[in-house]
Amino acid sequence: MSKVTTIIDIGSNSMRMVVLQKSSRFAFNLINETKSRVKISEGCYENNGNLQEIPMQRAYESLKSFLNISNALKSRKIICVATSALRDAPNSNVFISKVKKDLGLNIKVIDGEKEAYYGGVAASNLLHDDTFVTVDIGGGSTEFSFVKNGKIEKSISLNIGTVRIKELYFNKNNTEGAKNYILDNLKKIFELDIEIPKKVVGIGGSIRALSKIVMAKKEYPLDILHGFTYDARAEISFFDRISRAKDNDDLKSFGVKKDRFDTIKEGAFIFKTILEELKINEVVTSGVGVREGVYLTDLLRNSNHKFPENFNVSVRSLLDRFQIDEKQSAYLGNNAKKIFDALKPLHNLDNKYRGLLVIASKLHSIGSTLNFYKSNDNAFDFILNGLNYDFLHTSRVVVAYTIKFSKKSLPTKSDILDYEELLPSLRVMQWMSFMISLNFAVNQDFSRPKVEYFLDDETLEISLPNRSFLIESNIDKLETPEDLTIKIL
Amino acid sequence: MSKVTTIIDIGSNSMRMVVLQKSSRFAFNLINETKSRVKISEGCYENNGNLQEIPMQRAYESLKSFLNISNALKSRKIICVATSALRDAPNSNVFISKVKKDLGLNIKVIDGEKEAYYGGVAASNLLHDDTFVTVDIGGGSTEFSFVKNGKIEKSISLNIGTVRIKELYFNKNNTEGAKNYILDNLKKIFELDIEIPKKVVGIGGSIRALSKIVMAKKEYPLDILHGFTYDARAEISFFDRISRAKDNDDLKSFGVKKDRFDTIKEGAFIFKTILEELKINEVVTSGVGVREGVYLTDLLRNSNHKFPENFNVSVRSLLDRFQIDEKQSAYLGNNAKKIFDALKPLHNLDNKYRGLLVIASKLHSIGSTLNFYKSNDNAFDFILNGLNYDFLHTSRVVVAYTIKFSKKSLPTKSDILDYEELLPSLRVMQWMSFMISLNFAVNQDFSRPKVEYFLDDETLEISLPNRSFLIESNIDKLETPEDLTIKIL
């Protein structure tokens, strides 16, 4: 697969491009994302679904700009897919041929099931959960992909969409009709004879806009949408109120942004109805969708469209990109496990923290790559944003803080205030802080010593093959949690 | 010169190492900094100045650890210098020979004038100012280097030092004697027959500690020591009070940190006396000193120990390290100038902002290299810390904010609150925000178009060779400052 790959997705409202760069076999990162609201479907409905001249011209120009960007970034592979906008237009071939002829680009029109499947591939690889149904509400259709234990069981596309509902029902003040139309369509899901999960992964602009509003309402501490999770049952009546907003001022008061005024009522109505009908408990917001699914389907074509077990793309990509010494990083990961295990009788932390301590230890030196001075502070926001895929928000915050707290003194209550609701207790963070700091202290001379740790009551005995004034004085300076004392052997 | 170079500096109190990595001919960045308080001179004074066994052993062990780190970082060149600790000890050769024999390391004992000179080289290349005297207060001596218009005119070392003053006078409560001793030594400066600048660049632990205290007292918004500047006359009486502190609680109440308790009174006393006697107006804090001077003297050995004109090591190093497309960066720099110049009749900004707009435009894409999502936010702290050398704090903040504000909407009062005292007016920042945003909007397709700008009254006419829906709609979305309107030709 090419090192740099471009994925373009032509929707009825927006055209979007992502440019992704591979850093190793399965790891990649985003290097460009461009969106253009070309509204290629504008005027279609009044013209038997036919694409109109001016919207086609806009889309053509933006595609040309997209290709410029793609070339400037040395992308060698471009995959361009189009969904309902082109699959429903009788004259789509006019546009497709012109693009093929003038720009040399093949547009692949994909069917609804495929579109749903791509959403499932993206969500199952790039989100932490493994059993859920993706819901991707678009202008003309909504895609569902049922994922169980990480495996996609079924994908389906229904003719429910914000623009469709708006034109057919909302513009005529017929919400009852809208409801019946949606219920009627949803029957196809129940006919699938499949177990419906209690968790929705929400994809697409409408659902993301709703998540943003919920986030703001809850004063959620982390400004990251991908992975943001909320209780569906607690928000259904809120979504209902949005769907019944009288005017734009009303929408504004709910926290809706201007560029979402046109279809948010329909989006909220459709989503609310789906959540109710499918008896969903929890919504996980996805920042990834069709484009990432297309990319992953290509990248993982020889492995059933799934990353290998225990592979984390964010961690791998950060390690790849930030010139981290592989041997040091592996050593620190292993040593973290030893320290965690030796101290387990005292700290009694859940084993998930062992994994997070290992990740924090491996990623710690990114801070120095970025900027040696204040490296831990600089690393904080960076790690918080860099662990973008396949991490719970709570895990991200723990890893970022553990790195920030790798210093002599233990964190205090005021140090964790900003993200308190996402963090475990101060006690847990103090242990994490101590363990990562000890990890670096024993290896401060980068000699990767074979250290052994023994716990004797509340004394940690450290057998240190690289004893020296530098190492010992740094271990001496470490503040220890609770009643722990350290003895160097 | 080697790609990775290690500089070790053996002082009477601490041994310090920096490992620096070259990224291009004159650009470099710090990849490791390690300090060990080995106190090699401990017990010297009671033993005719002879180095004692245990302190030598500590220093030896730490040197060994330093060399481990240096090797792990693939450093190919090590320069180790020692100052007063070894030059004053009759038996220094015992230590030097053992290190040479067992560790293969040559310790170069440098005289006081050379030590002062290295401070001058560091300050004149890595600070914004060009006429000043460096003052580096150590345990046994204080070094002065007189720099005029960027040229080192004279370097001198005096036998004034915190430990010396403490043992000879402060321990005997004889401040009058201390004062006379210092005045007597300072005569050598007046005998130099040199014009004494009004500005001190303060080097070394004691002066840095004093700067930190002043910073905290003033609630200075930026947590960066290097380049922090204050009015000397306003702090002299404060330093006097520190020098007369009765006990550690007293020191603590002034904001002194525990590890500085032992010599801060003497440090404050010496510095205060120097500031008074030399009639200094302003103090600029330096985070760099002998080690960086040693490095630069080697790096710049063929150019009179000075960077070329208009070379900025921080900007170059960031451009080198963060995979920035050189052509794009050069284009954006040039285009920034065109935009600034075309709009000059309206914004009337000082030309220094032209330079800062160019730097911000060139460095902007670092944000994307770091993390595509929230790239401008991530870049902010990073740029603030990354422009570590040769920048006024006010300039750093302007560049970092200009990058952060490269978006559709103009900043408001609340956006600049945190660093208000270091920033120009909101009006200036709104113009900077608009100009950088326009710069990126015209090149959003990365085609580096040859754009021309004409100002007609309050309308900016843009002749755009790469007109397209994407570019035009993005320019349309830009919020403009004051009454400016935009017309695309």
Explain what the structure shows:
Chains A, B: Pfam families: Ppx-GppA. Chains A, B: One of its GO terms (molecular function) is pyrophosphatase activity. Chains A, B: This is Guanosine polyphosphate pyrophosphohydrolase. Chains A, B: Keywords: Hydrolase. Chains A, B: InterPro entries: ATPase_NBD, GppA/Ppx_hydrolase, Ppx_GppA_N, PyroPPase_GppA_Ppx. The structure is a homodimer of 489-residue chains. With 489 residues, chain A is an alpha/beta fold. Chain A has three domains: 106 residues, ATPase, nucleotide binding domain (Nucleotidyltransferase, domain 5, 2-Layer Sandwich); 176 residues, Exopolyphosphatase. Domain 2 (Nucleotidyltransferase, domain 5), CATH 3.30.420.150; 176 residues, Hypothetical protein af1432 (Orthogonal Bundle), CATH 1.10.3210.10. Helices cover 46% and strands 16% of the residues of chain A. In chain A, the strands form three sheets. A six-stranded mixed sheet of chain A has the order 8-7-6-9-11-10, sandwiched between helices. In chain A, a hairpin with a 2-residue loop joins strand 7 and strand 8. In chain A, helix 14 crosses helix 17. The longest helix of chain A has 22 residues. Chain A is elongated. At the A-B interface, strand 3, helix 1, helix 16 and helix 19 of A face strand 3, helix 1, helix 16 and helix 19 of B.
